[in-house]
Write a structure and sequence with these properties.
single chain; 426 residues; alpha+beta; PmbA/TldD fold; 9-stranded mixed β-sheet; 6-stranded antiparallel β-sheet; 21 strands
Amino acid sequence: MFERIKTKLQASGASAWELTEETVRGWEFYFIRHELDQNRAVQTREYRVRVYVPIDGGAFQGEASGTIDPTASEAEIDRTLADLLFQASLVKNKPYTVTDRAIDIPDETAPVDVPAIAESFLRAMDSVAETPAEDVNSYEIFVKEITRRFENSNGVTYSCVYPSSMAEVVVNARREGHEIELYRQFRSGTCDMEKLRADVEEAMRCGRDRLVTEPTPLCDGAPVLLSGQNAVEVYAYFLDRMSAGFKVRGISDWEVGKPVVPGAQGDAVSVKAVPHLPNSSRSVAVDEEGRVIRERYIVKDGVAENFWGSRQMSEYLGLADSSLVYNAVVSGGTHAEEELREGDWLEVMEFSDFHVDAAGGDVAGEIRLAYWHHDGKTVPVSGGSVSGSIAEAARGMTFTAETVQQDTWVVPKLTRLPGLRITGVK
């Protein structure tokens, strides 16, 4: 099928094209409590096509993308390509070239041991320490081997195989006739059994504490402590602001060689793009446009180092050797966890929705569970919100030397942000 589509692309009249075949092979398990409800093996295949056409004699370039089913007939393939060429003719982009630098690394085609990964997930869930008051309600496990084959009109080709897994877990906590249910989603490449067990047990503790929360007090001015996925949102701001798309569109005013947070007095942020990250769900050496992902600092010691992005935006910005970024490592800071917990602080564990806007730098989230530490006492609280500007808070931001992995990110274990507004409910 790949060769059939490729032959038709070559004869389609497109000035350039890209063709990707992605095959997914996996196992799925569905549990109620710890009893298997159902399981199944899955295998899917999809063909993604992108075509380019010149417009107005090459003054502009159009492009369009779509998918082709592996069971498509010759007529259906022809119709899809014709539709894409027509759609591309309606788009007027500044011209740019598709990837033309040959891959200088070997294909990564070692098969993924799906059964072994699945077994690790099942053993990890069986090891979770439950109590009469906190337990696992249900969980679903998805383990996949993803195989990607790519070729474009410039003859750039590559193949890669990588694991991508997910566990969706629902936990319950009960106290004095009241019960709460919490949902968690854990993504990874393979399975870190100890981390998954610890994460599920932490979710149960959060459920237990949600049942005894007090209203969030008026504690505006106290620093906010973040960890886990909430911390990832903070550091993703630095990565996003260095994207070529943001720079080309004028959204980011950051400049290579200049501080990203002028006047910073806390820990300097360093964010490194890496192709491979152990246990990441997207650990690959080549991006989806056929460009090698090279290890490089995006921000180093608080200074802008390298922009990154799609082929289109990278070429517009004049980047000679750029790529998309799938995995990022944030260097640890200069503090121990105990230092960040000195004085008064509000550690937020759960937001109803937490967002750091990369364009404007706005921070916003409604508090579902937090721990308010004041006068030597720590109380679980709920309600109210956290808001403010990440650009302002980052000037005094401090974080631990110890780091932890959150799927495609490595971030400091604990991050302390001063200057955010905390709106209490009492």
